[in-house]
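Session log. Operator J.P. requested a structure for one protein chain; no other inputs attached. Running the standard single-chain path with token output.
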Amino acid sequence: MQISHAAAHRDVASRRPRVGVVLGGGGETGIAWQAGVLAALGERAGLTPATVDVVVGTSAGAFSGLYFSAGLDLQDLVERERRGEVATAPLPAGGGMTAIPPEIIAALNSTEGTIEERGRRVGALALQTPLSISTADFVAYVATMLPGPSWPAVDFRPTSVNAATGRTVLWRRTDEVPLAAAVASSAAVPGFLPVVEINGEHYTDAPRTSFSAGLVAELQLDAIVYIGMPTPSLSNTVEEDALDRLEADGLQVVRITGGEGSEELIREALDPKLRPHAVELGLRDGAAAASAVAAFRAV
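Structure written below.
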């Protein structure tokens, strides 16, 4: 059966854009800030799980990305963040950025070598660092922070890094990895939280290789919403450079990377006491970007 040019044009015009949401790291404050951003975008731009095709979350973004993908009431989550009624990561003695050994901080901040080489260095240090919480207890605790044990229907992909090879992995529902283990492996800040063993391999929150171009090609995405503050000591990625190149090639990109006041959230990323403040800044930053997100969703 032949389809007329006019009919084909109407089909393309009526198709909603294929949208990816990419969430970066950011520790405790990052989870709350991203929750605020997503809540504002849902309310003001209509960004919901039903309007996106993939959600990728790194470290803090693995939590907020799951909350979004699972269809949690983000306005309710914002209220709980404001009241301090949310679960936070299990904090070691002397919790905070200073709890991470200086040699690991140096390795995370290093730009020497390829991303995979840097990941291997960080992974080796993470495996050698004794911690007060076991992997099993960490994964069990993460399970209590999730809305349930089942992967969401939305294509949700938490990222992590193989500690031995430095290879970046984007976990998927079809990998048949327990959701809590996948999220924990994404948020296993080296020297702060333990590496996570999955199928005999160890995973940690080390520098990731870029994955945006692969997602665009695989899923034929029209647009990406990138939500993440620059946190070089926590899960630093090269996604923004990749997005620059994709945007030059015609991809629609909205970047939300933190406005005025975000410096403290970056500096004290592992301090849960700042989460009520962080969610307010997230609401502000999400509202500021809502028109841009609504505009490309309406194309």
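Operator note: The CA atoms of residues 18 and 221 lie 5 Å apart.
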